[in-house]
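**User:**
If convenient, please work through this fold.
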Amino acid sequence: MKKKINALILCCLFLSFTGCSNSDDFTVDVPEEKQEEVNPMDAFTPLKSKPITNKKDLLGKGYDYTGSYASDISVRENVLDIDKFLNEKPERYDKMESTQSSNFTVSGANAWRYTKHLTNISNDSYWNPIPDNINAFSGFILDNEMLYNKDDKNAKDYSFASIHYYFHNGKYALNARPDDLFDYLTVDFRNDITSLSANKIIEKYGTHVIGEYIKGMRLDLIYKSKIDKSGYTTPEYDGISYTEEYIEDGIRHTLRSIGYWPNGPGNPPDENNVKLNGIPILYIENHGGDNSLIPSGVYNLQKQYPQLNINKWFQSLTEDNAALVDLNLDKLIPIYELVTDELKKTELQNAIEKYIKDRQIVFK
């Protein structure tokens, strides 16, 4: 009897609602599932074919401090006559040709923070700190149209994480102060100091001189995504730490998906964090080794994941195809330190500092 009464009450309640309301007037708000933003990029966009640079000796060459990260494409013209220096002061030259492998990861809530962290990793000197507002290697992102669009008003919303895997087969260094090198400047550099403007000198020779470098092969895997920040509910918290945690889980998920993890699979990423990575892409580029063995380019991860035969590529390293893969920023010599004329030195120093400042990533 009790069940029948309850059923009757429910029936009456239903009739009372339907009787006093028009079906057109009564609506129930059902929250819509958030639609995934779609990346219109092709599944894979290959990099332009790059020749083997085969720059066997980089000591004494100019280098653009703001260029791509530890790359041959940032190397400029000879500043030092390195053959003369090595003939006259062989004791000031260190050459270590042992082999070893290593890797590191870096992340940033945006492009500026990413290059800042990359700069900090490459500069380990307490005595030569880099100003907080200056990043090296800004061109690693800034000059790469596949990773950065300076005209995109939403550029600041993209986060980056990367892993870089190295195989070193040689380290080379000069143990000399700038004033030990005045007698070893190339004839061209001496002439250009007196005949070219400061900006032209920077264009030809870069901003610094390479005093130490490591050659071998390096694989860069750079992950970019747009983190969903809708869960940030605390107004005074900018979410930077959370964003970098989410982007790191994003690249870990990607590496596990393609079966590549230099340090072992480790703990699986938080899948809830992975889902916060919108329109993800993976940029792959190799330095050194046989370029044909790595499908370098950009992968739209909404459409395709790469297939990499990394072990075969690692086995392809030779003396002839080794490339610049690492350097210490503290071992770069500012070009103006090699200019004896005080007026020209000051002019060049000011121009270099302005050039580096102008090459920083700035969000509109």
